[in-house]
Amino acid sequence: MAETVRQRQKRQTRERILEAARTLMEGGRGLDSLGLREVARECGLAATSIYNHFPDMEALGLALIDSCCFRLRSAMEYERRSMIEIGPAQAVNELVGRFVRYLNDHGNDFRLLVQQRLGSHDRYRLRIQRELQLLVDELAEDVRQAVAARGGDAVPAEQEAEAAIAIMFGAGISMLDSSAAARKVLADHARLQLQMLVLGGRAMASGERL
Hints:
The protein has helices spanning 5-24, 36-42, 57-86, 88-117, 122-150, 157-175, 180-205. The protein is mainly α and 210 residues long. The chain is elongated.
């Protein structure tokens, strides 16, 4: 069903509100420091109008977290799935490269996710945890499909995916306030860690243990 003019206007206004909140947070401010009226002023809305879109700051915060998580998952999707066609070695290189580009373009989004994942707001933290689990689940399924396509032994895909996301998340935290040169070094470290993870998974699948 085609989007009506009213629906399009409402969606566009909602997007303006989210972008205004992002702008206010560019200096490192957290969600807890924002108010709906301040966000309304930033995007040129009447203070009362913003309540037609978000009843309170928590609702806006959850919508912003959803938007940030969607950007992250969308950025990673192609490189995740490419491992089925091009193999794990090249897929690891492309995955890290894509993640660095995501940080360059949406560093404030990632900063928000880090802040709220470690924050005290239960609903924000649980929403991010849910989205990260979806990313783990998708990556685990891609790993299973890639291994099956190669005819290899089954690997502990869920644990491998969890570890891979942890590596990328940790690298991203270190990269946030780093120079371009430092980001390159950190990206190389992440590639090496992911390669070790893949090789370890293969070794365990073949029966090797410490």
